[in-house]
Amino acid sequence: GHAVRAGYMYSAMADVAALTGNRDYRETLDALWEDVVSGKLYLTGGIGARRHHESFGDPYELPNASAYNETCAAIANMFWNHRMFLLHGESKYMDVFERTLYNGFLSGVGMSGDRFFYPNPLATDGQTDFNQGRKERAPWFDCSCCPVNIVRFVPSLSGYIYAQKDDSIYVNLYIGGEAEIDLPATPVTLSQETDYPWDGKVVLTLNPDKEAAFTLKLRIPGWAAGKPVPNNLYSYEDENVAAIAIEVNGEAIDYSTENGYAILERSWKNGDRVEIDFPMPIRRVHAHPNVEADQGRVALERGPIVYCAEGVDNQGHVENLVLGCDVNLLAERQPDLLNGVTVLSGSVEAWVNDNSSPDGMDEIPFMAIPYYAWNHRGPCEMAVWLPENKNVAVIPE
Predict the structure, then answer these.
(1) How many structural domains does the chain have?
(2) Angle subtended by helix axes 23-39 and 71-88, to nearest 10
(3) Residue 154 burial class via C-beta count within 10 angstroms: exposed 0-12, middle 13-18, buried 19 and up
């Protein structure tokens, strides 16, 4: 069915289930959610594979160049997952929310704030008019649901960062700012300082009106726990997980986890500081073997950010690149590129057509940028899923 309308309806069903305790709704929602995350969710958090009817496809039907992934569907997916979190209190729903926020949603609006994508494909040849008759973001559409939906969602983002239940504060998103939260024991002012999603260091300062005991629940992002998505639709090539350090007032603490959250239960006083450090290695991602479009290919992530390669950074082409398992990439902050991004760079093998190499392959510089930032330097080739071996890569024309 229509992915956007489905997301809206499932959001409403979750509200009804939460308010009434309707078990049938809850069980149906759980089954629907599992169906999406196990075979119909793009790595970017986008949903709705088919242009026809703007709909979901079959399980594992996740084409890249023809991916529809309407921007409104990304927003609907965030609405739904936030409500599923409110219904169940589990971090996996906010993991999907975050993945969608920084990737499948954010790509839908240009950095100038006045250009938009209707669909959000994961690959393009730079020649196809995929965006309602355009190769680039457009200022408006005949059916302009996406631009106004973005304008509706962005000002509401602060409402998704925290949640409160009884004497617990849930920290769901790591975004700098300040919030006031009323707990039964005392009002609390909570501030966050961080350069997330580029850096995994987060500092939270708690200022309760009076010293009081309550629980701080810090979401451990799925990507930091070795799982790009809650199911096995995508997996990291290197499954090793670095330890996540948490300090309170400068002292390392031991903590337990529950439903994907680090649990900090104690008596808090004015000025208490909590510091978290999420390691952000570059991760290679593989898709489930049933996703035919991504076989023989690899995607790149760092933190919650999904990366893509654009021809403008890679000698004009991307489908000729070979990102073998021995490729060494470095993360580098480039403050003057695309309003400031962290890029991934190194050297890769690539098919060439200039007779410079006897076997048709040469080593060339490689760079990947955050997926959300693509298509800001003119139409060109782009891909999220890049060839992992030369049999999948193609010789450029």
Answers:
(1) 3
(2) 130
(3) middle
Q: Is the dihedral of CA 126, 236, 76, 156 positive or negative?
A: negative
The pTM score is: 0.97
- Residue 78 contacts residue 8 (beta carbons within 8 Å): no
Residue 381 has phi, psi (to 5 degrees) of -65, 145
Judge contact between 139 and 115, C-beta under 8 A. yes
Phi first, then psi: give them for residue 377, nearest 5 degrees. -130, 35
Copy the structure tokens of residue 330: 């470095």
pLDDT at 225: 97
Which helix (H) or strand (E) is 88 found in, with range? helix 71-88
Q: How far apart are CA 196 and CA 182, in angstroms?
A: 26
CB atoms within 10 A of CB 272: 18
Domain coverage including residue 349:
282-387
Give domain status of residue 35, yes or no: yes
The tokens of 83 are what?
């409500």
* pLDDT beneath 70, residues of the chain: 355-356, 358
Q: How far apart are CA 63 and CA 370, in angstroms?
A: 20
Are both 66 and 208 inside the same structural domain? no
Place of tokens 């149906």: 28
26: three-class secondary structure by DSSP: helix
Q: Which two tokens stand for residue 350?
A: 């690539």
Residue 38, domain member (yes or no):
yes
- Predicted pLDDT at 62: 98
Condensed to tens digits (0 to 9), the pLDDT of residues 313-329 reads 999 999 999 999 999 99
First to last CA, the chain: 39
Task: Give residue 355's pLDDT.
Answer: 67
Residues 98 and 13 occupy one common structural domain:
yes
Sign of the torsion formed by the C-alpha atoms of 197, 200, 201 and 205: positive
Residue 366's identity, in one-letter code, is: F
Domain match, 185 and 73 both: no
Question: DSSP character for 36?
Answer: H
In the structure encoding, which two tokens stand for residue 392, read together? 């999948």
Residues 6+ apart with CB under 8 A from 120: 44, 46, 67, 69, 70, 71, 74, 104, 107, 108
Q: What is the CATH number of the domain that holds 77?
A: 1.50.10.20
DSSP class of 100:
I
Distance between CA atoms of 376 and 5, rounded to whole angstroms? 30
- pLDDT for 175: 99
